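Phospho-N-acetylmuramoyl-pentapeptide-transferase
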Amino acid sequence: MSILTEILFLHVSVMYFKKKERLLKQNYKGKKIPCGIGIVLGFVSAFYTFFIYYYVSKINFLVIGLSFLAISAVGFIDDIFGDNRSKGFKGHIKRLFNEHELSTGLLKMIVIPFVLFTGILYLTEDMFKAVLYTIFGSLSVNLFNLFDLRPGRCIKALFVFLVLFGFFINWSPFCISLLILLVPIFIGDIKEVFMLGDAGSNLIGYIFFIITSELYSRSLNSIVVWIALLIVAALNLASEYISFSEVIEKNKILKYIDDLGRKN
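Structure:
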């Protein structure tokens, strides 16, 4: 039922934005298509999680559902009001102090760690774990945001990472359901019907975090987290010096995966 609701909302949202000519942005080909449609995934994932909470009464699902809404919503705000005048943490801080403007990018950098920290601290009642997992979650959200530069790349990156960590992940029905919910939005994204926007890429990063950390089971997987955290942190650091798009273009295997299913 959730996936049918998602397909319906995706169709209605795309038709509405095209008809009203709102939130239309140029993709890498210069084609104007609706952006920020990832907010649909945010709402559907949240209500699916609330539905589970209603039946099993496990507080972790309530926390995750609220986080889905908050993380996707703050990304959607960036999709609507964001600009390219400042990039990176330093750029947003300079803009705040020099121009006295709170950019939507800085708003994300404040809201997302706050949402992660409060939710994880409530679940674990452990300050060290809350800080560690907030860092991991925030870096994951930022990393997948960086991947969202070509149709389908962000969700493909998620699948690649999950394959690499597959043997160490507890593949619960909940985590499998989340991946199934990605299918309709992945198809629309890679076919250039719409763009995920920050509303979607932020959420993809959060989904990667909750699956690898096993936050949904409340038995936080510290071994996988340490490994994943190191990889995610290294990639975030590398992004300051190299272009992921250039690396992908120069690597035959990565380029093949990146182009797979995409329009020429």
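The mean pLDDT is 86.
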